[in-house]
Every structure is written in structure tokens, then in C-alpha cells.
Amino acid sequence: MKYFGLIWAGLWRKRARTLFTMASIVVAFLLFGLLQGLNTGFNTVITNLNVDRLYVSAKTNMTDGLPIAYAARIRNVPGVRAVSHWTYFGGYYQNAKNAIPAFATDAEPLFKVYREMKIKPEYLEAMQKTRTGALVGSELAKKYGWKVGDRVPIGTSIWTTKQGSSTWMFDIVGIFDTSSYGGGFPSFYLNQDYFKENSAFGGNIVHYYLVGISDPHQATSISKQIDAMFENSTYETRTQTESALAQMQLKQIGDINFIVNAIVGAVLFTLLFLTANTMMQSVRERTPELAVLKTLGFSDTKVLALVLIEALALCVFAAAIGLLLATLVFNSGALKVIFGNFTMPLIVLAMGSGVALILALVSGLPPAWRARQLNIVDALAGR
Amino acid sequence: MTPVVSLRNVAKSYLRGKQQVEVLHGVDLDIARGEFLALMGPSGSGKTTMLNLIAGLDQPTSGEVHVAGERIDRLSRAALSTWRSQHIGFVFQFYNLLPVLTAEANVEVPLLLTNLSRSERRKRVETALQLVGLSDRGKHKPNELSGGQQQRVAIARALVADPTLLVCDEPTGDLDRRSAEEIMNLLQALNRTQGKTIVMVTHDPKAAEYSSRELHLDKGRLVDEAARRAA
């Protein structure tokens, strides 16, 4: 601690240079925090997805759909406790830019499959009684100021009504809590029966069967049983767990892990040279001063330690600011749309601290070693 | 009385490129405790090399160097560092203060290597600055001080750990006449009132006049004083 003044003074010897280097490290670790946070976020979301839910879609492509009649057969498979379904409606509100994640479904079993989604029983009852009813997620309702009893027009670019309109009218009969999911989760449900009756075409198909099972350990065998049941039929199925489905969907937008690691790796690699160069320059400029310290009795090891601690202070302090900013962004709710109530994972902060330490050691060691090896007589003579 | 510095048959050579340069040739020298020795001689005569050997900054090629009861030519680099911190106070021609530290902090640097508490260190720094007449300049950084004041801070830094030997390399070489006189008066007072043993390298005969003994080096050999005067 008694050397703090010496280290601090050395660090701020060239104020502008130190500030610019610090700014680079802050930005790099902000990026690190955000990207690794996103990456870990995706992985955590996938890991936390329920394993007692299966998704059945057409083997060829989800958009090909499956016959609505499959529901009863799937429900009869041993170990299945509830079956519902989704048909992608592709809605928007007022303007195509205001996309609404709307799906046609059978609401009552849907909330048995998604047990963590909370809804009042009277809303479910109202949904069953109201053909044009719609259940809306709390976030979506809040966004557009909708409340129970409102009648809302929802446009769709896929399904025209039998009257030839692309706008469907719905009566909001209930609002359910979506806090356990991100905003991207389907949060507007219409009755499958109404969809079937009112759609000009395709009302008999569903895109996904959502299957709740009693024992998660049986997921693989139940999946196999369902797929075997429809093998060699016109509509063969592919059954996946929720996490497998999510991973597959993420793969469609690229290998997030690879992209994140490549970007973060490139940034840190560049940063390594930047910091090493700053430290090297700083040590080179201070050669006579370091020689003076040695003349006064500072050992080679002590001088090495002083330079190394200086690099550590620079990297760790700046990295801490970067990670703090990343945490603030994460926890501010800016990413709530993707992750729901997800906050910056501690593992990312721990990883960031580790990377900052390694960065400091790798970039600080060459100049520190140079300082250690300094010959007093030569350094004082300017050789 | 045992001399505080004793050089026996000390030789020093350097390798400059492929050429071996002999700087000191079998020098013998004793310096008594409380002496103020001025080492003089032309450039390249080996004065600074000899000073570096006495201060433990360099090792001789051959011969023995005894300082403060220790044979320092046999010490390792690490042991020499510790030894220097305990026995040597060094004053440079260009002051060599750390520019980012205040005068107080500069003076405190050698004390960071001791086990003294913060308050004890502060007390010693105050005393040292008082001794060189700069107690009111403690908070100033080197670039806010004149050359003479910076050299006084450097002397305070050299004194603060109460070393056995004060080693000065051209302490007035970068100063105007008036400041040089002030510094030499200060060094003389330290020698006379505090009993500090001082070894000083200088080109300046006026500075040498403040010492209690003058020695001349020429081409790496100590010149016989009588012969020099006769010449």
C-alpha cells in the first residue's frame, strides 16, 4: 500500500495517453460484457427452457403444417398430460412495422402446457365463450394500452378472411402474465376455431403441437413414439424438446457462440497490443527514473512488480468500468425484449475479470521484464 | 581507524563493441569516516566509474571494494540493492527527481524500502527538507522548483535514510554559480556538522575547494598529489 503513490503517479505520468488507453479498454470490455452476456443469455435461456415440453412440427418444414386431427392421437400417447397447438398468424397492429407475435391456439390446454404462465380462470372461461376472443400478454397489453373489453384490429400478411380482408377483429377477453418469458414469446392468442371458420384457406393446419409430459426423463421415448406414430404418413412429424427447438432456431441466425467469440477475440487481441505498446512506451520514457529507483535500493524484482502492478491497475480498473457499463445496459431492461427478466450473468463478470487479469499480465510482463533487466549505469548514462 | 571505503587493486574494463576499454587500472584508495573527498580529473579519466563502484552500482573487473564494513564486489544484484538502500545516498548531476511526485514524495521514496510507519516517514521527510532549507516547498513538484532547489530536494532524498556514505556525481554541474555555492555550502555543512562522509566527483576546482581532500584521476590511475602539484 505504501507504494500506491508511486504506482499512481507512474500511471498518470502521461494523462492523455493513459485516458485514451483506458477508454479503449473500457469500450472493449463493454463489448465483451454485452456480447458474452448475450451469448450466455442465449445459452441460459436455452438451458432453462422446460424439458417437460415437446414441440411437434412437420418433418419437412414447420410451415408445411400438420393436420389438426393429430391432437387426439398425440394426447393418447402414454406420459402425455396436455396437448395444445400453435398456428402462426403473423399479425401486426395498425402498421406492418408493429409486429404482434400472434398465434391461433386451443387456450385451455395451452395454459396446462405452459404452467408457468399465469392467467385468471375467468379469462380462460371467457376465451372459450367468445369466438372472437383474444388473450394478450401483459407486456404487449401495456405497450399498446390494451385492456380487457377492448376490440382491436389485427392485420396479417398471410391469412385473409373469407370476406377477403387481411384485417381481423378481436375482443380482448383476458391478459396473462408473461414476465417469465422475453417479449419475443407469443403473446397474442386467438381461438383456433375462429381462425378455422374465418380463414379463407388453411384453417385446418397447425404449425406446432405443444405437448406437456408428466416425466421429463421420458422426453426422448415419447418423442420417438409420436414420430413413429406418424411415420410413412402424408404428414410425418419431427418432435423436439423446447431447448432443442430453440437451439435449432438460433442456428438459423448463425452460430452465436462462434460470432461472439470471434468478435471478442479480435477485440481483445488488438487491445493486447495497444496496452502492451502503452506500457512499453511508458517504461521506455521512464528508463532514467527506473534507474534512479534502482540506485536508491529498489531491487530488480520490486521494479518489475511496480511496472506489473501499474499494468494491472490500468487494465483491471478500466475493465471494471467497462463491465459495470455492460451490466447497467443489461439490467436496464434494454434487452428485456430478448431475455425477459434476464440480468447480467455473474459468470460473465468473473470471465471479464479473468480476461482483464490475463490482459494485464501479458501486456505488462514484457515492459516489466525490461525494467527488471535495466542496468543502472547504462540507463543513467542514457545508453 | 578503519576506513569507511577501501579499494584494493581495483580494475574496471568495459567492452565497447569488440574493443576492451580499460577504465581503471589497479586503483588503491582509503576514505576515512567523516571525510569529504573530491574526485577530480578530465573526462574519461574514470571518476564516475570509480564513484559507481564505491556506490555499489557497478562491479569491478578485478580487485576488492570494501564499503561500510562489507566487501561489496562479491554481493549479488539483489543483495547490493538492499545494501545500497541502507548505506548509500546518491546525488546526481541532473537531480533525477521523479517528475510526477512532489518534493515531499520524492524525498520519501528511499524510506518506502524501510519498515518505518507512515507518520515516522513523514517526520523524517520534514526533517530532511528542513535540513536543506526547503520545508516550505514540500508540496511543489520538481518543475515548480529552480535547479538549485531541485538539487536540494535530491540531497534531502539522499540524506533521509541516514546513509553511511553520500555519493555525489557532479552535484553542481547543472547549476549557476550562486546555486552551486549554495549546494557546496550545504554539502560542507552536512560534512562538518552532521559528520557525513561524502565522496564527490567534480570538474569544478571551486567546488573541490569545499572538500577536505582532493584526489585526481588520470587515465584510470590516481595521480600522486605532490607530483601533480610539481607538474
Q: What is the gist of this entry?
A:
Chain A is of the alpha+beta class.
Count of helix runs of chain B: 8
As a percent range, the share of strand residues of chain B is 25-35%
Main sheet: strand order of chain A: 5-4-8-9-7-10-6-3-12-1-13
Helix content of chain B: 25-40%
| Broad shape of chain B | globular
What's the gyration radius of chain A in Å?
30 Å
Structural class of chain A: alpha+beta
Shape of chain A: elongated
Low-confidence stretches of chain A: none
Q: State the end-to-end CA separation of chain A.
A: 33 Å
Q: Tell me the span between the first and last alpha carbons of chain B.
A: 32 Å
Which stretches of chain B of 5+ consecutive residues score pLDDT under 50? none
Described by strand count, sense and barrel closure, the largest sheet of chain B is: 6 strands, mixed
Largest beta sheet of chain B: what is the strand line-up? 6-7-8-3-9-10
Q: Could you report the average pLDDT of chain B, rounded to the nearest whole number?
A: 91
Q: Indicate the proportion of strand residues of chain A.
A: 15-25%
List SSEs of chain B in N-to-C order.
Answer: EEEHEEHEHHHEHEHEEH
The helix fraction of chain A, in percent, is: 40-55%
The largest chain-to-chain contact, stated as pair and per-chain residue counts, equals:
A-B, 24 and 27 residues
Question: Which keywords apply here?
Answer:
heterodimer, A: 383 residues, alpha+beta, 11-stranded mixed sheet, two-stranded antiparallel sheet, 15 helices, 18% strand, elongated, B: 231 residues, alpha/beta, 6-stranded mixed sheet, 4-stranded antiparallel sheet, 34% helix
Structure description:
The complex is a heterodimer of chains A (383) and B (231). Chain A has 383 residues and is an alpha+beta fold. Chain A is built from 15 helices and 13 strands. In chain A, strand 4 and strand 5 form a beta hairpin. By secondary structure, chain B is of the alpha/beta class. The mean pLDDT of chain B is 91. The longest helix of chain B is centred in the last third of the chain and has 17 residues. In chain B, the strands form two sheets. A six-stranded mixed β-sheet of chain B has the order 6-7-8-3-9-10. The interface between A and B is medium-sized, with 24 and 27 residues.
